[in-house]
Q: What sequence folds into this?
């Protein structure tokens, strides 16, 4: 379904993550033997789109201890977004407020094609083990003077309560000052898990309710058609996160975001 773009979207960050299998080193640790040459090779391939390179502090971690940790970043503009992050066995594509799905999907496709084109024997040795599409949204919320559970019920359709006797004859007020709720549901299309997390955090220097909507591929991930099957999984994951977001915020919040 085609959606109307939101003028005041609550999005903090959209992230696509691809992980691939590592190999055992002589010391019995999992490594990506191509990680050292991959940085320069990928940069040469994408520098027209992402000309600004950053070495992350995690790049100083020894290779055998840095599995699936981003160590290098490529930005489209100095300090700007979108961006790509790369590390042993992992690549992420990240976008923020300017996110538009069709543009984000295009950047993911460009990045995956670039990765496979520079990875030695990419279609044989670069075997995906995990796909992840995650959206982080936030709303300012005064936890000190408002009841987050009442807010969740009214605006996000999440009815979460505790046994009343926990608060009877005690000096505990039934209005949480902190929250960190994690829920996971099996997904059929795409094959994997749908994860929802809500927690208290800080966004734009304001106390906020932050919620993450994530689709993670099944541990039994099979993608015989590379990279076509990755795009197919991605489309289904986006359809799912899109439906969840708009169903959660339908009503007053959606009007606020338009």
A:
């Amino acid at each position: 379904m085609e959606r109307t773009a939101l003028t005041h979207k609550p999005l903090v960050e959209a992230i696509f993550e691809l992980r691939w299998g590592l190999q055992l080193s002589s010391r019995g640790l999992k490594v990506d033997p191509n990680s050292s040459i991959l940085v320069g090779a990928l940069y040469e391939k994408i520098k027209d789109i992402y000309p600004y390179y950053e070495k992350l502090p995690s790049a100083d971690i020894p290779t055998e201890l840095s599995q699936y940790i981003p160590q290098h970043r490529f930005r489209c503009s100095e300090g700007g977004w979108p961006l790509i992050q790369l590390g042993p066995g992992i690549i992420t594509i990240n976008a923020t407020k300017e996110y538009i799905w069709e543009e984000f999907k295009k950047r993911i496709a460009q990045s995956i094609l670039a990765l496979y084109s520079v990875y030695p024997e990419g279609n044989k040795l670069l075997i995906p083990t995990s796909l992840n599409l995650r959206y982080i949204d936030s709303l300012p919320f005064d936890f000190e003077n408002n009841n987050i559970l009442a807010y969740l019920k009214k605006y996000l359709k999440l009815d979460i309560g505790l046994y009343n006797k926990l608060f009877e004859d005690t000096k505990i007020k039934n209005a949480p000052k902190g929250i960190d709720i994690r829920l996971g549901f099996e997904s059929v299309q795409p094959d994997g898990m749908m994860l929802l997390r809500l927690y208290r955090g800080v966004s734009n220097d304001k106390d906020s309710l932050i919620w993450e909507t994530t689709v993670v591929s099944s541990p039994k991930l099979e993608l015989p058609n590379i990279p076509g099957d990755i795009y197919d999984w991605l489309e289904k994951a986006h359809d799912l996160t899109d439906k969840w977001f708009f169903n959660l915020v339908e009503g007053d919040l959606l009007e606020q975001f338009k």
Notes: Residues 228-249 form the longest helix (22 residues).
